[in-house]
Every structure is written in structure tokens, then in C-alpha cells.
Automatic annotation (TrEMBL):
UniProt GO molecular function: beta-glucuronidase activity; carbohydrate binding
SUPFAM superfamilies the UniProt entry points to: (Trans)glycosidases (SSF51445), beta-Galactosidase/glucuronidase domain (SSF49303), Galactose-binding domain-like (SSF49785)
Naturally occurring in which organism (per UniProt): Sinosuthora webbiana
GO BP annotations listed: carbohydrate metabolic process; glucuronoside catabolic process
Regulation: Inhibited by L-aspartic acid.
GN (gene name): Gusb
Protein name: Beta-glucuronidase
Lineage, top ranks: Eukaryota, Metazoa, Chordata, Craniata, Vertebrata
Amino acid sequence: MALAASCGGRAGLCPLLLLLLPVLLFLPALAAGPAGMLQPRDTPSRERRELGGLWSFRADLSPGRDAGFAQRWYRQPLRQTGPVIDMPVPASFNDITQDPSLENYIGWVWYEKEALLPPRWLQGDPAPRVVLRFGSAHYYSIVWVNGVQVVEHEGGHLPFEADISSVVQGSPDTLCRITVALNNTLSPHTLPPGSIQYMADKSRYPKNYFVQNTRFDFFNYAGIHRPVVLYTTPAAYIDDITVTTTSSDSVALVQYEVSVVGSTANSLSLSLRDQEGKVVAAGDGPVGELKVLNPNLWWPYLMHENPGYLYSLEVKMQAQVGGVLLEDVYTLPVGIRTVHVTSTQFLINGRPFYFHGVNKHEDADIRGKGLDWPLIVKDFNLLRWLGANSFRTSHYPYAEEIMDLCDAYGIVVIDESPGVGIKLPESFGNKSLQHHLAVMEELVRRDKNRPSVVMWSVANEPASELPPAAYYFKTVIAHTKALDPSRPVTFVTDANYALDHGAPYVDVICVNSYFSWYHDPGHLEVIPLQLTAQFENWYKTYQKPIIQSEYGADSVPGLHSDPPMMFTEEYQQAMLREYHSVFDKKRKEYVIGELIWNFADFMTNQGTTRVLGNKKGIFTRQRQPKAAAFVLRDRYWKIANESSCLPPVITSHSLFL
């Protein structure tokens, strides 16, 4: 259901379409964000406090969606400016209530939470630094603390934070009122892009009727999707750590760079500990390398009997501030591994790695895209039951909590930006490009130290056949490689191999195809010929290894037909087997991976081809297996046994409990 908005404002455009105009007209400019974005952790010098639970919530239903700014709702408790409802955080707001207008609401919504700060956070000379951090909020966020604006952020899938020390430490009490204005409108220049379409036919639509159009096939859930955290650091603190690793059979080098803010460090020391707590290497200074003898390498799941081995890098800093000696301590998990790409192989620690995995979504009943620990743990148990060694974060960066488990369990990740649905020519312009570059900076800054992340993906299924795509993707990929020279970079294409302007710049070809589904629907017999031609054409043109980054078919659980017909579980099984027969031939040459679309059914916009969402999952949205899950499980365990260095006793009943 679309919502109406009045079309006052500048040049006859409604404030909603202008997105941020009501804000920028009277709010002060903001300081640049911090250089580092270390994940908040409890250490001897740092404390953290999560603010999950129930927040006050209100959707701005005024004609222009701008009442909250006009009336300055942030200046007093939200409940004093009108009705509020309880809203869980983290969660999407769309499916929580029985109000149908909220399901597809477009515009500004308001959240608020009051928290008491420990008195020790507000005392001392110098007092500790107090930081407010959001794991993510979709899509555009403006945050106030006690009525003072502290941060503004564009983008729905990456963290942002603000140093709120000057606000809360000047308060007469320890109450901290956090107000968030959140807008989920997508424009041609956001990531992902979208557009607002007004329906002018008054005989068919109400006055000022509009819809939000998108060019991606998942529901545009909105809300505060990941944890909100208050944390402290000393006044002088460790701001950022960058780690890269190299290794041979008997020695590894851990190169590091540490940045400090607030003072020049009197001393900076580093200790690398193994999982038994033994110090295996030590160093000092902001830049250097640690030598580790006989290292335990980080191996993917099913490539080693001890996958996902992590060391702990403890960084200690001492600095003098106002005559007081301060110490900050931060511990970073470190996995020692290398990645290298040849014309036919993807090598991890010098050994060929074959991606047998899945594409996923952060999506579930009721909570939408909200972080949910039971669901996360269930998904990892299913991944290991399946014998999957990898997934792509389709089509946006996933929560840090998910990435932590990938590091710990040895699940390999293709880390994808929210560059999905880049279809319109205006989405390849300079405004979009500059934002895309900024998003890649945020993503690399967040995930650069993760051993599970072996490749960056800058986009999914863009209109890369358009001429502007050449400069666009050349620039984005070069920028990403400059940010992180240690990893290959790709984007996922569904364009014709002869017309793709971005493919020359990637390190690995990732191609999506749905033969016998979107093309020649119902004709399974065309798959061998068309899929073989796809691989041969791409490889002949670019001489780069290829991942089948998507393939699959919808199946309605419990719907059966023999011979197989579309939308039945049998058809989904049959399609997979046809694809697999070609994969088995080409993985002996230059195909280095296969990622099924999708791990689980997920919600989409309503449409005549979608019955309560996309049904291409091998599991239902409730994580129950369809018949295709068992086909894939048998295949993945067979591949793992063929390529693993482990004894051949590996079965699908081991290593996943």
C-alpha cells in the first residue's frame, strides 16, 4: 500500500522526495566521522552497554512527513509530543504491528530510548570518552542526545558512531535520552538505489499517491536493525588497527599498523597469543611486524581438522594527558592466512579452494532484518550440516556478529556492498559514484581484518552493459584495491559476456544465470548447452576464474509433480542436478565455485510472481529443509571429501555439532 504526501516545498517537490531537505535547512553541519571503527569490546580499559529492548516509536504521518522537524520532536521526550508505541530494537518496524500502513511506510520514523549512565563514565580528570554506536539503521539516520544532534549517517548496512562525551558529561544528571530520526526513502543515488513514482491519474489513485520503486528482489525492510551500544575509552585511545598476514610452512609474518588519538603514545606494545593464552610473538611501536614460528593457519571449514583458528592480538597504549598517565587496551582476533588468484584457481594458504556455498539474506518472520541470535546460530548449524564452506553477503554487508562467527567457524565470505539494483543511467553519475566510494571505505574499514573475508564484491547485477559502467566500475574497483591491496575484488554480473563493461576490471568473474527458469522456463533440457556456453564464453574472453554466483528455482514446500514441473520440489531438485553435471566438468578447468540461490526463502515486495516472497530457498523461511537441501548436502560433502586434506572419515554427521 502506498502512502500519500503533500507536494509543497521547493520547486513543487514534496519534502519526502527531497529526503533530507527539511533537516538540512536548519541543522548545523557535522564534524567528519572517526578514522577508525573498531568493534566495541570489553577490555580492562573499556566498557560497553547494549541498549536493546523496547524503544519508543512513532511514524511521522503528517502530509509532508516533516512534522518531527518542524515541531522539533528531539528537544523533549518523544512521548510528550504525541502518541508513541513500543518498538523492539534491533528489528525492522514493518511487520511488528497490525497496522497495514506501517508495512510499506515510506518516510521519517522516530525512535527514542532513555538510558542511565554509570556515574564513573562522567567523572575523572580527564573523564573517559563516551561513544554511542549503531550497528546499522536503514536507511538515513539523524541522532540526538539530550536534544543535541551528534551524528548523521547515510546507508543502511554499516555502523556509525558519535563521541557524546561533551553532551552527557555536561548534563546535571546521568540520564541519556537518545532520539533517532530514520528515513527509508531510496533515490537513484542511494545504495541500493530506488525512485519515487507519483500516480497522476486521479481517476485511479488518490491525490498525491506515490510508491517507492526498487530494482531488487527483496523487501526494503527498515528500522534499527543491529545493536545500539554505549561504550567508553580513555581520553587518549587506540583508534584503529590494521593487520595483514603472510605465511610459509614454518613461519608467518603479521604486519600491523596502529593509530592513536588524543595524545602521542608514551608506549605502544603488542602481544600475539594463541588459543591457549601463550604469547607467540611480541612487538612495540605503531608500525611493525610480528614473526610467528610454526603458525596455526586459519583454514576454511572442511579444509582442516581445526578450521577458523584465531589468535588474539592484544594492543596496549600508554599516554600522558594533562599530567595523568592513561592506558588503553584492545584485543583483536587475528587469523593467519593468505589469498591468491590465478587464471584458473582461487588459493587459500597456497591450496586450491572451491566455493561450495550459498547466498543468504538477513531475513526472517516478524523481525525482518533485525539481528536475532537464535536465528544466527541456527543458520550456522544448517550451513555446517549442509557442508557449505562459504557464502556471499547478498546484497549488502551483514552484521558484525555474523561475521564474527564466520571468522571463528572458518566460513569463507565474499563481502558484498549494498550496490544492488544499479540499473538507471543516472545511478552511474558522479553523485552515485562518490557515495559508492564512501560506502566501500566504510565496508573495508569495518571488515579489513577478518580472515573469513577473502574477496570484496562491489555490486550485484548492475546494468554493466551501459557505457558509463566502464568508468564507474573501473573507479570503484581501483578504489577498493587501493584501500585493501590484499584481497581480490569482483562484482556479480548477469550481463552478456560480450557487452559487460565492468568485467575487465575484476579479479574473479562472478556470473548469475537461471536457465530453464527466467530463460526458457520449464525446459530443463537446455541447461547443459546454455550453461556450458556461458562458462566457455566468459573464460575465453577474460581468462579469469569463474564462480557461478547464483542459480536456482522457486519451490513451494509440499508441492510435488513427477515429471517435474515448475514450482515443485522435484523441479528444484532436477534443476540443481542439471547445473551440477556441468559444474563437475568445468571445475576441473576454471570454475572455482557454486553458490545456490538461496539458502532460505525470503520476503519480497508483493507481485504476481511472488507468493509471500521468493521461494528459491533450499530451506523455508522458518529454516525447514526442502528436498533440494538434501541434494545439495550430498553434493557438498562429496566435494569436501574429494578436496580435503583430512582423513576420508569425514561425513555429513561430523564436524557440525
